[in-house]
UniProtKB/TrEMBL annotation:
Gene3D superfamilies documented for this protein: Ribonuclease Inhibitor, Toll/interleukin-1 receptor homology (TIR) domain
Subcellular location: Membrane
PANTHER family listed in its UniProt record: LOW QUALITY PROTEIN: TOLL-LIKE RECEPTOR 13-RELATED, TOLL-LIKE RECEPTOR
Main location: membrane
Protein name (database record): (Atlantic silverside) hypothetical protein
Amino acid sequence: MMSIWGNFLSHFILTLLCVPLFLTPASLAHFLKNCSIDYQRNPTDDLILECGNSKLVTIPDDLPKNAVSVNLLNNKLTWIKKEDFGGLTKLRHLNLQHNDIARVDSGSFSDLETLKRLHISSNKITNLTCDIFQGLSNLTELLLDRNEIQVIPACALRFLTSLLSLDLSSNMIQQVTDIQPVLQLSQLQILNIRLNQLSSFETKDLLLNESSNLRVLDVSFNKLEKFSITTPIFPYLQRIDLSQIGGHSGLVWDITNKTLLENITQLYLNRPLISFKGIQTILHSLDSLTHLRLNYMDELIKKGLLSQVCKIPTLRQLDVFFNNFSFTSIKLSPCSGLRRLDLSLTSMSELPKGSIQSMKQLQFLSLEGNFLRKVPDDIRSLGSLQILRLNSNIISRLSCEDFFKTIHLRELTLSNNHISKLDKCVFKNLSNLTFLDLSDNLIWTIESAFQTALHQLEVLNISQNTINIIEGGDFRGLRSLQHLDVVSDKILRVYPEAFDGLINLQTLAVSLALEYEPKFCKLQHLENLTILFSIPDTWKSSYRNNYKTCLKSLRSFTVICNGYHYGFPLDVESEMLKDMKDIEEFTAVNIYVQAPKKDTFEFNHQLKSLTIMKTDLSDLDPELFHSIPHLQVLTLSECGLTSLDFVIRANLTALRYLKLSDNEIAVINETVFQSLPALTYLDVANNPFTCDCSNAGFIHWVRTNQQTLVVNAHQYTCSFPVDSRGSMLLDFDIQLCWGSDSFLCFIFSFCLVVATLLASFIYRFMRWQISYSAQLFLAFLYNSRKKMKECSPQFDAFVSYNTHDEDWVYQVMLPELEEEQGLRLCLHHRDFQPGKPIIDNITDAIYGSRKTICVISRHYLQSEWCSREIQMASFRLFDEKKDVLILLFLEEIHSYELSPYYRMRKMLKKRTYFNWPQAVQHPRVFWQNLKRALQTAEEATENENLLTGPRN
């Protein structure tokens, strides 16, 4: 009993101590004041924070410790302090670009042990302290470009033991010796020192104990007058970028020993300030060159540079994009050994015949972003070609000869052209093609282009064309197709047999007119289906409510309706979803005109992601979610929701991400989130919030809860009341609510409830103990007063009995003791003073009598007043140490029935008592013994019985 009472008190006190937490914001809030969250559709523990473009002058102090990426791009930071990134032990990417950072304290990154990428570009850093990179032992990429760094001390780089890439471009490095500590990094493979103030690059000035592990070196956009490699410090160097280098007098290229650059295979030249002869010198010194990039070199190309380039016997890849080839004198025929050729963005309107005809080993060709009107003739002879990109031209027609001999072609991109028709013969020889992109053209008919060829095709994109009708069998020959996109707002009819033959199709995106017939029953391997409904003018007469899909393998289903419903019930019924028992993602945008029926997902128990948008959900039934217990992602945007009360009965115990943006929610009761124990992300942006005390609980919850991240909460604005419109929701001062009358009423109600609970608890478990203690205390006070008065007893005995035993007392006991033996007894109905409190009458009777006779029966034991009388009499017995108590049993009562009266039971084990049932045969003896007990002296010793009479 005392244990229960102690626990109750502990919880009560703890509750009272917690009350102040409702009055003041917690110091560790789980919302972000200056950053937004870049969440994923299926939220994971990877937390990506976007804090860019927020005019921050200091690092936010509320960055979650489990963030893996923090973007602080384009703010006004000037100083990185040591404690700014403390505790971010999971951070892998930190972006500090485009700020005004001039100072970074030593050890500022010491907690970022898992950091892989650190970007501090476009700041004002001039010096690198020795401990600036402390703790970054796992860093692999460091960007320090566009700062004001002149010197790089070796001590600053000693922690970067895993660094692979370093960008020091656009700084103020003046001598090659300034980068010597960088070249001593054992793992470094990529070094960018472009746009510095280097006037020469000579390896003889570098004193390195070991050769560098460098693979890529970018020295472009430096006014180099001399480039000299005379020592074997770059044995692994593979790529070098010499774009726009050279001084007023050109460039001195000093490579006396070709073996020092024998591993260089890639060379980039972009607007080099070098003469034609100088470039020839460079090319002649690189015997292993396989990849050459020549950008913005129109004049040199006109002088015949390409003819010289094609003489390099090892050359396999040539990039000449960003040049002007509007002229037709391109000489590429000597480059017969090329494997890859990039002629993108060269302004050519045609590729002269014979330009690339000799490239029998060519595997990759890009002609995108030009003005070609047809497929160049030379392509027909490129039998080894595997990848061809002709996108973003003005090609209007494909002929049967265009791909006549390109039998090894695997990828063909023809998007964003003017192609209007596909003849049957166009692709007949492309038996190895696996990827075909025909999107964003003017194709109006497919005819039989895909029926007899393209047996290996896996991906086909024919979206955003002018196709009106997809007939049965249009894709019949594509038996290997896995991904098909035929989305277009021009489609008016898709025949039921349109997708016959696509036995391996896994992903399908298609536009359908409203008359939705079962078109997918034969796609037994389809896992991802996206349907975009278009509503023609004839919709009202052609509407069909036939939704069966037969897709048992589907995992993701998206349905989007473009247009106005006209109030007709375009619904995705449970019958449509019946066979999709393994579906995990379902999206419906502008599909339902009212809330879906509660049995819509009764067969989709594996659903994990549900999105319903642009739907009136004012009559949403929470039972809709009862059949999808594994739901983790729920999006209900633009649905006219005004309350979150549906969450309480929705059984969303597994939900991790809840998005309710763009609704009509004005007030949120924070208690609804008790029904979402797993909630990690909450997005309620663009709702008309009320900024008054009705939202005080929600605001407090946003600030203090430590589990749920409220996405972009710092951007939520007020819509009501009018005078607060436009202000920030989280700026509302909830202290005003805690000090109002409503809060006082809350406190009073809270205390009243606690007091009621406490009283009920005491009455249920401790009322007898408290009552007994009170009576003992009153008896003690009364006894003290009696002792002071020293009055003689008024009665011989006070008789304590129950009214059910009154007949025996008056007809048997009273005549024998008062009439026969002359004793004066005190009886409550006769001798109690009227108008006096009962408890005072009892106390006066007990202490005003020499002894107390308790006439005990079962009714007596059940009486509350009789219990008080015997308790008070027993107190007098033990307090005065006098023989003042006589127990007289009218009935045979077993000892276990006396267990509530542990004092009486204890006395019965040691003292003599009177038993009337055993005295029936010898009543005179019984009364003589009772008289003797009443006349016995009150004084008693420790060894004498306090109760007299025979042991019956």
